[in-house]
């Protein structure tokens, strides 16, 4: 039996190393292994006397040795078994040039950078450069945007050693947050500098990759590329959005061609869920805490960047109804490790947290601490939809909101894919299920996974002072959005409309939500008068009321720091609330006109209207707004009132009160283009409605 197992393993890994017992599936992996493990001294003749790191070029060695000597004498005071903070050749699959090694833990002292700053670019716009430096912008990035997208490894990022292209785009995004208090008069000049810098970065990146396609293997190139995609997607300009889509296609094609979508190809020795060989233990056991930490950073940085790519591909362009380019089935990377490992500032803290999470020494954590359930995004999603997800998976999701966000993104993609197929079939008005896209068994699986995620979010009890507040809040918002998608599908999706930007897509969705365009796409003569029915809204009514309070209650710094994709998802939820209020109000008014009396409070239209209006009035009261009849304390007496005259005043004001709240929510989110643009769309709709009413009365 043992001989048969060895024969199968040899057939699976036909390329064996002549120097050791290692074998590989591909010849290039074998050559890389030999160069890194058995020819290091020959290929890298220059050795640092301080940390024994080796280099193949004398100029790189000279710069390193000077920095290493300075750090050893002035800044770094390692533990007895730590190495100096110098990047050695830790992983043969990921060159050390992919990472930036810190000169000091972030952010113990001010950042200084020699890269181009806003003053260099602004030329004719000196007003935006007053008192602002690149260091300030980078700090704004990590204090605000990084909390929503932990793409970069903050403890090892320094502007003095990071590649210029990466520092520039970090500075561009960070400058959005470092220009407080908000001054609308200086926004134009700042936007021009940011857009010029972004366009230059795009050209430089594409030239870099065009000259050598393998440059995309470098983690910093991938990180820089992704940040350029994010910024361009949310600029209020169609040409910039098209440029971001083009960059997304390039990076996805490169990832496929270079094998980056499969961890077993890119980094076969880094699979923590499958014990590779006893040799890994002995090799890792000889490393210092510092080199183990940096080895983890090396692998995790690329992993997080690729998960970010999948997230952006699936979510960032969905408001414009653009289908993802990457399937979860082809993405073969294990789930990211816990978030507090990623944020650990030094090897000592990282070592302690590894032991706390996995109950084993850091030299052993790469050898199967979590199990097969965390082996890939697809397997983890399948496990979560089973009746009994594994404890290892639940622990991984609880410890990492970014991982939970990626799983939720994959579930939402699954819902949208099923919806595309469902709405190409003939309508089924006899189907009583509120969640009508899936079969009953499929809906049970999806809903079970959503309940697990909901419990994880609630158990976190996240607060604004938590370092992972924004990520857990993102999971919360997107969780509600995915539940709505189960029974209230996106209008652009089933209408077959693909728009040319996120802003345009949301504007189109607004007009479609307030009209009846979808009924035309679903064989209108065959459908009942109420295409959607109230059962869909009733199924998510509690979620809508709760998330409405959370969205509208986020003001000041919370709204200021909100990621643009969260704003887009929140706006979609608010559109669903708007449509539900309008439809429920019309049904109640029809009952009054027909029977001259209010419907029973148990009627679905009354339940929907009162529940949502209670949240709307609560948010308006907290924000200093409100309508006629709203008291300073307690519930509005018109809510759930059976008095006809009292309730009718609320019915007449209901939609206008909600729209005023929607406008406030949009204007509070002024940082990116979505908030101001959607506020303008709502203003135009209101102006058009008023014009139509005035014409009809005349």
From TrEMBL:
Major subcellular site: nucleus
SMART domains the record matches: ZnF_C2H2 (SM00355)
Domain of life: Eukaryota
SUPFAM superfamilies: beta-beta-alpha zinc fingers
Keywords: Metal-binding, Nucleus, Repeat, Zinc, Zinc-finger
Localization in the cell: Nucleus
InterPro entries named among the record's database cross-references: VerF-like, XnlR_reg_dom, Znf_C2H2_sf, Znf_C2H2_type
Protein name per UniProt: Fungal-specific transcription factor domain-containing protein
Domain C2H2-type: 15-43
